[in-house]
Specification:
The longest helix has 9 residues. This protein has a single domain, classed as TonB-dependent receptor, beta-barrel domain (Maltoporin, Chain A, Beta Barrel). β7 and β8 form a beta hairpin. It is mostly beta strands and 482 residues long. The protein has two helices and 23 strands. The strands form two sheets. It has a 21-stranded mixed beta sheet that branches. The protein is globular and about 70 Å long. Helix content is 3%, strand content 62%.
């Protein structure tokens, strides 16, 4: 990969008024594993069944084809105004522009360099958003927000026909109130939101879709926080949610080179609707111990997911694993666990666990492509350096253990779920001062022992292992003018 970014910000602040402008530019070139672009169905099947790529290649920093090039820019203007003694009005406008180019591994018939040939897919997405929110001050122990949101998107596909040209308009209004009567240990929050989305879909390659779609729905949330003695906090959240299918899910029809797969949308997809519940318990003594446990249970009607086809797709670009967008009623539940414990001065144990269980209630089977159980445990040492010209450096050693995903539908994927793995990472960092100028430095070694493994959710697992040992050195010099 190659990446170039920059950003700037400026602002003005007065007693009752402030305004800030922000601009950022992001560009990256991402290499795609060449062994994932296969010429015919037989070679594709052999590549999936082979334990390692036929051609291991030679090491080089040069990024050839296939590859992605992504440019993204953001301009944001935000402002707030005190509305007397009763609240504050916040406004934000943003414009984002994203250009994505995907280059396949298809060789040209002439001798031109691959760097100057045209992309296989190129599209540009421009997004305008505007938010207006009024935040009122406490009244009868209530504090809340009223707001409206607006978004306009325009997509232009210059090359390829993976997704069509379209215009999309989104408008919403919401109201949130929070009740708190300190020192009473209970806090309550409730909110309601209405969304409307209208979309006009035009040309897709040589075909004209010419379809207008609209979606709308109401969603709501209710939450409670209860503070028990001895620094225990309980959080309960219940709510409804919905999501309209996006253009990719509706109309995708072609090779998505960035994921080395053929994707086919379904224009008849319905809106996803969900009822979500979560319960969190947290213990924090504010000194050396913090532990949290989150349990969640989600019922989703018309859940949208990608399903592998029985056979790969052969195209003029080669042979690729093929996937169709489908819907099903689903149940997703699980837990997340986190722990930070400084058991002796400067030494901290860090622990995280993520377990998820899902079920396709329509097919009475497991949902495909759900995360496997993940355990992460680490040991961190912070150097107790009392030198005022330095902040305490640290070193962290982390073990990540991922189990094999055995909860998968039978005979629905191009390759069985990979075996579990254990990976070790090492990280160190410190902040130094050159007079008053801070300099942040960090060194990380990911996959210290160069373990060979594959991630179940990464479609490139059909062809190759994940990244091996990777060493990164980072130096950050923040600066500003006051």
């Amino acid at each position: 990969m190659q990446e170039y970014n920059f950003s700037w910000a400026t602002g003005l602040k007065r007693d009752k008024f402030d305004v800030e402008a922000f601009y950022s530019r992001f560009y990256t070139k991402l290499g795609i594993f060449r062994g994932s672009h296969i010429g015919n169905l037989t070679d594709l099947q052999n590549a999936i069944e082979r334990e390692r790529p036929l051609d291991d290649g030679e090491f080089s920093y040069e990024i050839g084809r296939p590859q992605q090039r992504i440019s993204h820019e953001l301009f944001k203007l935000s402002s707030s105004l005190q509305t007397g003694e009763i609240g504050k009005l916040n406004f934000q406008y943003a414009r984002q522009f994203n250009r994505r180019q995907e280059f396949d591994a298809h060789k040209q018939f002439n001798e031109l360099s691959e760097e100057i040939t045209m992309p296989s897919i190129e599209f540009e997405l421009t997004t305008h958003t505007a938010d207006l929110i009024w935040e009122h001050k406490p009244f009868l122990n209530l504090r809340g927000d009223f707001g409206v949101d607006f978004m306009y998107q325009k997509n232009t596909t210059d090359r390829g026909a993976l997704i069509p040209n379209y215009d999309s308009y989104n408008a919403s209004a919401f109201w949130i109130e929070r009740w708190k009567n300190y020192p009473f240990p209970l806090e309550l929050e409730a909110g309601i939101r209405y969304d409307y989305r209208w979309m006009s879909v035009g040309q897709q390659g040589r075909d004209t879709i010419g379809q207008d779609l609209d979606f709308s729905n109401v969603s709501g949330t209710f939450g409670a926080i209860y503070k028990l003695p001895k620094l225990v906090i309980l959080r309960l959240n219940m709510g409804t949610a919905w999501r309209a299918p996006n253009v990719s899910e509706l109309y995708s029809d072609g090779v998505h080179h960035g994921s080395a797969s053929y994707e086919k949308g379904d224009p008849n997809l319905k809106t996803e609707r969900a009822i979500n519940t979560s319960l969190t318990a947290e213990l924090d003594n504010k000194k050396n111990f913090n532990i949290s446990l989150n349990l969640y249970y989600n019922n989703i009607q018309d859940f949208i997911y990608l399903n592998p086809r029985e056979q790969p797709q052969l195209t003029i670009r080669g042979a690729f694993p093929a996937f169709d967008y489908r819907q099903a009623d689903a149940r997703i539940m699980g837990l997340d666990w986190g722990l930070d414990y400084e058991f002796i001065p400067d030494w901290t144990i860090e622990s995280g666990i993520s377990l998820l269980r899902s079920w396709n209630r329509t097919l009475d089977d497991y949902l495909v492509f759900m995360p496997a159980d993940r355990f992460q445990h680490g040991l961190k040492y912070s150097f107790n350096n009392k030198n005022t010209n330095k902040e305490a450096p640290f070193i962290r050693f982390t073990m990540t253990n991922v189990l094999k995903q055995n909860r998968v539908p039978a005979d629905t994927d191009y390759a069985p779920a990979p075996s579990g793995y254990t990976r070790f990472d090492l990280e160190a960092g410190a902040t130094f001062y050159l007079k008053k100028q801070p300099i942040e430095a960090g060194l990380s070694i990911l996959n210290v022992f160069d373990e060979s493994y594959r991630e179940y959710l990464n479609r490139f697992r059909y062809f190759t292992d994940e990244l091996g040992r990777n060493i990164s050195l980072r130096i950050k010099i923040p600066f500003g003018v006051k």
